[in-house]
Design a protein that fits this description.
10 helices; binds zinc ion; six-stranded parallel sheet; 2 domains
């Protein structure tokens, strides 16, 4: 399917919502975690995908966590939005698309120009204090400088000390990224907003999401139950293909 065809179809609907997953950012240079060249080829997701696993490795050999964070951070900071991100930003500007619900933490929808982005798995650039919950948003340069600094520090104790210095909040607590790790609950406010949006929509676009990660995978089902149409855009396997009114592997 081409963009023009999709736009002709989409413009007939009054309240369009998109649900996006890792597949949308592959053409931006971010491999999916589980896919070819993805981080889970090198790092064990049971350790590096969980906060408890990361904390344990960090205390014993912090440089391993720093290398992992650096690789992830560099990929995300260098990524630029692709045609589908820009298409969604254009749809929002034209008034058809009301919101983008994303499972991605890469900030690419905002970089493309979307204003109403609901991030149900957090954002790599937004950190919060574990104690006072104050939020801080970092730029790509700030994140890269922080990671480069950590990479240059030698010695386990020094590295741990520096990490806690760098992430210290005014209140005495420490900042952590807002990313939702495996086993953590989704941010309640965002998820509730996402549910409200899918209940309101008359068309939902599922893009680059395999539909296996719950509870995000239930959102298109809620939309369908409320009478919405579903278009699934996914080059890989997707459980939404079965319930889609139309499905296509790509827009490129
Ligand atoms: Zn604080």
């Amino acid at each position: 399917m081409k963009y023009e065809e999709l736009y002709e179809f989409v413009k007939k609907f009054k309240y369009v919502v998109a649900l996006t997953g890792a597949g949308i950012s592959v053409k931006s240079g971010i491999p999916t975690f589980r896919g070819k060249g993805g981080l889970w080829e090198k790092y064990n997701p049971e350790i590096y995908g969980t906060l408890s696993g990361l904390t344990k490795v960090f205390l014993f050999s912090p440089s391993k966590v720093v290398n992992f964070a650096f690789e992830f951070g560099e990929t995300i900071c260098n990524a630029k939005p692709n045609k589908i991100h820009f298409f969604l930003a254009e749809l929002e500007k034209k008034g058809n698309l009301k919101s983008v619900i994303t499972q991605n933490v890469d900030n690419l929808h905002q970089k493309a120009g979307n204003k109403n982005v609901i991030e149900i798995h957090g954002n790599f650039f937004r950190w919060f204090c574990k104690k006072c919950r104050k939020e801080e948003i970092f730029s790509e340069d700030e994140i890269m400088e922080f990671l480069k600094n950590l990479k240059s520090i030698k010695g386990r104790k020094n590295l741990i000390k520096k990490y806690y210095e760098f992430t210290k909040c005014e209140c005495g607590g420490h900042l952590r990224p807002s990313i939702v790790f495996f086993g953590e609950l989704l941010p309640e406010k965002e998820y509730r907003k996402a549910e409200e949006e899918v209940k309101k929509c008359d068309l939902i676009l599922t893009i680059g999401t395999s539909g296996v990660v719950a509870p995000a995978s239930t959102l298109p089902l809620i939309a369908k139950e409320n009478g919405a149409k579903l278009i699934d855009i996914n080059p890989g396997e997707s459980s939404f293909k079965n319930i889609a009114d139309f499905s296509t592997p790509s827009l490129f």
